[in-house]
Structure formats: structure tokens, C-alpha cells
Amino acid sequence: MLKRFFSYYTPWKGLFLLDFGCAVLAGLFELGFPMAVRAFIDDLLPTENWTLILLASAALLVIYAINAGLMAVVVYWGHMLGINIETEMRRKSFDHLQKLSFRFYDNHKTGHLVGRVTKDLEEIGEVAHHGPEDLFIALMTLIGAFALMFSVNWKLALIAVVIVPFMAWVTSRYGARMTRNWRALYSSVGDFNVRIEENVGGMRVVQAFANEDHERQLFARDNASYRSTKLEAYKLMAASTSLSYMSMRLIQLVVMVAGAYFVLEGELTAGGFVGFLLLVNVFFRPIEKINSVIETYPKGIAGFRRYTELLDTEPDIADRTDAREAPALNGRIDYHDVSFGYGGTPVLSGVNLAIEPGTTVAFVGPSGAGKTTICSLLPRFYETQDGTITVDGIDIRDMTLRSLRGQIGIVQQDVFLFGGTIRENIAYGRLDAAEADIVEAARLARLDSVIAQMPAGYDTIIGERGVKLSGGQKQRLAIARMFLKNPPILILDEATSALDTATEREIQKSLAELSKGRTTLVIAHRLATIRNADKIVVVDRSGVVETGTHRELLALDGLYARLHMAQELE
Ligand code: ADP
Ligand code: MG
């Protein structure tokens, strides 16, 4: 774990060493100042030589200035090191998220994932910077200050360190409790994010059900639990702050009384006395530092653990090592004995299909039968458990995901649009498309007249997930994307099911246009829309039950004929 953590320092070795060196130097200066004060009082004052006193002060000023510069450098470089490591980890996380399959996203909440890429990594960045540096400097000053105290007056030094075991006890006792507390806090922040994400994302549903009070109550519970965990943390913080303050002051007082005695006895000079008191401060400061490292370390490690957990999640669908770029596909598709299930129960078993290039195949059947599932296997959103799927005779697992998915276009019932402009959303079909191609795609999808009426034309912002567009407009945008992408294989998954019949009829025309010359897999809710398909596959919970043309299936008088009859009656 730690070894892996430190491997992130490797690219920044130079920066780390520079920063570390400056921090050590600054630490040494801090140790030196009390001794300088002692020399000032004991050696310089008795000379009564103002030139010397002013010269020494000037020298001190120079050293102070250097130290100030060092501090600035340490703060800046140290944080630079932290943010460099954080940025690299964030890049890796985001990169990895792109590779994880649908199955992963089926089982993870957006809010938690967002937290991992943002908050978690911020904590790690802090620890990456402060952890090793603060710990080392703290130990160095602790030991250094003690050695100096010992050299000034060993009896006084022994009296001063008597308090150390007590402070160590306070630190470890409160440290452990704080660690537990932070952990609880972070998990409640995660739940918090999920709650807010879902509430804000689903606000339309919340308000449509008038369930604001219910949401408020759920949120109030999380909010209250967050508050009480945090209050617990502050209570601990309050106790440990005042305890360590009190013990520090106590020891100072003891040192003062004992020191006064030693001075009067002639065992200690006045300068040594003052220097010693300053050293006591230098001695105790690292203990607070160590405290804060002990406090932030668990946060960082918890974050790092979650980070490695994410990175170690192997993408369950990836290019085989010997995968090749798919050639330009004709679109002949074959399913050979394909079986699949999402988890426990199998959804598909022994599905066989042969689809000629350029033809349209329709899938019909009751909801939940597995129509969408059959189509999801083709772009390898999920992996078949048994059997193979080939396109143009090539096993889809032998092609790279990119070259396979680049040649399959999907239009679904709910179109996911991004928050930008109409132009950007159409161009998502082919990122390097020229303006003229985008306009042409919009024309083919009959989106041009809609765009012409928009206030800013192609630059109109369509709102999060396209909320400012109607259902029909969203579908047209999705179709325009497909015209632009121009794939040989097309999947239309209930693309018009959510629309009213008039709009559906309009969109159907565009879809028919889009399907021309492409192998098209269409899932239809309303059978009237697929009457002319080259082949109709009837899917039931028991699998593919009938295949044929509209006429053949009617003649068969099976499930299709019954579904057809039912819809005709409507
Ligand atoms: P259809 O498109 O025919 O309505 P689906 O292919 O969407 O049916 O679903 C087939 C079955 O698989 C259903 O029982 C559904 O509950 C289940 N299912 C669909 N998607 C998932 C998923 N991502 N995870 C788990 N089960 C799923
Ligand atoms: Mg479906």
C-alpha cells in the first residue's frame, strides 16, 4: 500500500528533494534562533558595543529574510508536489472510468463515483504533500530541540521532557478516536452526495409527485447525522486542543520556576534561560504537527484505498490482446447459440439469428422479454456468456471495441443529450465533422426547421440532458447524430415509443430514411411501425419463439398474430 503510494512521487523526485531540502533548512534555522538569542544576551550585551549589536541584528535580519523565502518556497513547492500527484491520480481515475463496462455502472451510484474523483483525491493530495515532509521535520525539530535543551542545561531538559509521555498519551488517545470519526464523516459525505445528486437530477419527478416533503425528510436525516458526527469531531478537537494547551503552559511554568532557581544558583545564564524557554516552544510545536499528520493520514489513506479499489476494478469488457481493427463492415450479423443473463436468472438462452446486410430486422414481444438485451450484446455493452456473435463473419470479440462501436449507431427511447449547444450535440456523432456536414445531418433528420426557429440557431443551449427540447426534437437530434456518424449497422430501440402518434409518424419517416442501406435492428412497441421489416423476430421470456415476415407470422397464428390482433383492436 505505502509502496504503491510512494510510487506516485517518482516523476516528481526532483521537486520533492528540493522542497524537502528547503523544509529541512527552514527547520534548522528555527532551531538556531533560540541559540542566537542566548548568544545575544550572554555574549553580545556585556560588550556594550552598539556597532556589534547592530551588526548582529542586521545579520539576523538577513537570516530571517532567507527563512521567510524558504517558507514561501516550501509552501508553494510542497503544494505543487501535492497537486501534481493529485492531478495524475485524477487523470488515471477518469481514464479508468471510461473503460468500465455497463455492468459496473449498473451497480455504482454516480454521487459516490463523483466523490472519488474529486473529494477523495483532494485528501490524498494534502497527505501526499504534508505527510512525509511534516513528519520528518517534526521529528528533526523534536530531536534537535531536545539536544539543544540538553546542551543548555541537562537538568532543566529532563524536567521539560517529563511531560512528553503524557502528551503522547493524549495524542494517541484522541488521534485514534478522531480517525474513526473522520471515517464516519467521509462515508456520510458520500451518502450526502448521492442524495443531493439524485434529488437534483430527479427534481422533475420529485415535483411532479409533490414529494418535496418526503425528500426534505430524507435529506434532514442525512444532514442531522452529518452534523452530529461533525460535532463529535469538534468535541474531540476541543478537548485535545485545551489539553495540549494546558500541558504546554504547565511545563513552561515548571521550566520557568526551575529555570529561575538555576539562574539564581548560578547554574544557568540569563541568555540560556531565555533561549531555553524559546526552545521549549520549538520542542512542542512538532507535537502538534505530528498530531495533525496523525489526523490527516487516515483521511488520505482511506481515500487512497478507495482510489486503488477503483483502479484495480478490471474492466470486464476490454479489447483482447490480439484484437484487430474491424474493416469497413457490410453489416451481416449472426448470433450463434447466444446465452446471457445479468446475474442470477438467464435472460437469453441459445439465441440464433442470421441477418443479411442492409436488411431490417424487427424484434417484438412483451416487455422484459430480452429485446434490448439481444441488441446490447452486439456492441459488447455486455459480454455473451455462451455462443458467439459475428459481423461479416468476424467474431465481435476479435475486433477492437472502438472500431466495432464506431460502426454501430443506436437510437433509444430516452436520448441522452449533453448540456451544450445543438451543434455540439449533433457533432457528438462525429467529433471532427465539418460545419457543412452538421447542417446536412440536421436537414436529413428534418431538424433544420426546428433549429431555424430557435433563438440562437445551432448555438442554442439545450439545457441539462436537453430539457429545453420536446421529445420529438430530442429524437430528431439523435437521428441527426446518426446521419453524421453514418454507421453500417443501426439499432433503433423503441425510438418512437414515447412520442404521440402524429409525431411518431413524422419521426418514422426520418428513421426509414436513416435505415436505408444499413443493417437495422429495430425494437418496436407499436407493431404497425415494423410491418414492412424484412424479418420479424418474436421474443418471449422463453427466448426467440417465432421468426418470419409479417405475412408469414400472421399465417402462423401464434404469439405475433395474437399481439397483432390485440393492437388492431385498440
Ligand atoms: P425488453 O427490452 O424486451 O423489454 P430487456 O432486455 O430490457 O427487455 O430486459 C430483459 C430482462 O433483463 C428483464 O427481466 C430485466 O429486468 C433484466 N435486465 C435488463 N437490464 C438489466 C440490467 N442492466 N441489470 C440487470 N437486469 C437487467
Ligand atoms: Mg427494451
From TrEMBL:
<dbReference type="InterPro" id="IPR003439">
    <property type="entry name" value="ABC_transporter-like_ATP-bd"/>
</dbReference>
<dbReference type="InterPro" id="IPR003593">
    <property type="entry name" value="AAA+_ATPase"/>
</dbReference>
<keyword id="KW-0812">Transmembrane</keyword>
<feature type="transmembrane region" description="Helical">
    <location>
        <begin position="135"/>
        <end position="152"/>
    </location>
</feature>
<dbReference type="InterPro" id="IPR011527">
    <property type="entry name" value="ABC1_TM_dom"/>
</dbReference>
<dbReference type="Pfam" id="PF00005">
    <property type="entry name" value="ABC_tran"/>
</dbReference>
<feature type="domain" description="ABC transmembrane type-1">
    <location>
        <begin position="17"/>
        <end position="299"/>
    </location>
</feature>
<dbReference type="InterPro" id="IPR036640">
    <property type="entry name" value="ABC1_TM_sf"/>
</dbReference>
<keyword id="KW-1133">Transmembrane helix</keyword>
<dbReference type="InterPro" id="IPR039421">
    <property type="entry name" value="Type_1_exporter"/>
</dbReference>
<keyword id="KW-0472">Membrane</keyword>
<dbReference type="InterPro" id="IPR027417">
    <property type="entry name" value="P-loop_NTPase"/>
</dbReference>
<keyword id="KW-0067">ATP-binding</keyword>
<comment type="similarity">
    <text>Belongs to the ABC transporter superfamily.</text>
</comment>
<feature type="domain" description="ABC transporter">
    <location>
        <begin position="333"/>
        <end position="566"/>
    </location>
</feature>
<keyword id="KW-0547">Nucleotide-binding</keyword>
<dbReference type="InterPro" id="IPR017871">
    <property type="entry name" value="ABC_transporter-like_CS"/>
</dbReference>
<feature type="transmembrane region" description="Helical">
    <location>
        <begin position="12"/>
        <end position="33"/>
    </location>
</feature>
<protein>
    <submittedName>
        <fullName>ABC transporter ATP-binding protein</fullName>
    </submittedName>
</protein>
<feature type="transmembrane region" description="Helical">
    <location>
        <begin position="53"/>
        <end position="77"/>
    </location>
</feature>
<dbReference type="Pfam" id="PF00664">
    <property type="entry name" value="ABC_membrane"/>
</dbReference>
<dbReference type="GO" id="GO:0005524">
    <property type="term" value="F:ATP binding"/>
</dbReference>
